[in-house]
Amino acid sequence: MSIRIAASIAAAMVFCACSAPKGATSGAAVSAPPKPAVMNASVSRAGQPDAIRLDPAQRAEVDATVAKAPAAQRPRLRYALATGDDGKVHLVVYDGEGLGAAGRHPGRKHEYIVFKVLNATTPVHYDPQQNSLVSPIPPPPQRETSVTK
Fold first, then answer.
1. C-alpha distance across the termini of the chain, in Å
2. Strand pairing of 125-127 and 132-134?
3. Residue 134 · residue 114 · CB < 8 Å
């Protein structure tokens, strides 16, 4: 019995020693973690140096989509270059509903929200967490209803 206790204490000490933070080696510079790439941005930032770069055709499409949106909605509009089901990158303009770049309400870290794409020709949604286009889930097939007596 005492051998099992001693073995479990020794194993716990080994695990604690292995998980301890390692000190910096002398002469090695500690670098900051890489900054994540910007996935989406406010349309008001389009064309600025730190925003997502767009070619002239994409910029014209953003401007046209913003012009079609109601005035109250325009400050909330965001854009992104997202991957679609076809593996290609598509320009996405969507109503971010005033949420942050991750598309979550403050304090709800497990929330999952997708947004309707305003400039799409087919009904698709934008997932800001995955930076991808999501095809809508088709409704279940209509079933015949029969009344049994």
1. 70
2. antiparallel
3. yes
User: Under 8 Å CB-to-CB from 132, ≥6 apart: which residues?
Assistant: 82, 83, 84, 126
* Residues 93, 62: Cα–Cα separation, whole Å: 7
Rounded to two decimals, the pTM is 0.64
User: What token pair was written down for 18?
Assistant: 């292995």
The secondary element (H helix, E strand) that includes residue 14 is: helix 2-19
Count how many residues are written for the chain.
149
CA gap 140, 143 in Å, rounded: 9
Per-residue HEC secondary structure of 20-57 comes to CCCCCCCCCCCCCCCCCCCCEEEHHHCCCCCCCCCCHH
pLDDT per residue over 48-88, tens digit each? 888 899 999 999 999 999 999 999 999 999 999 999 988 89
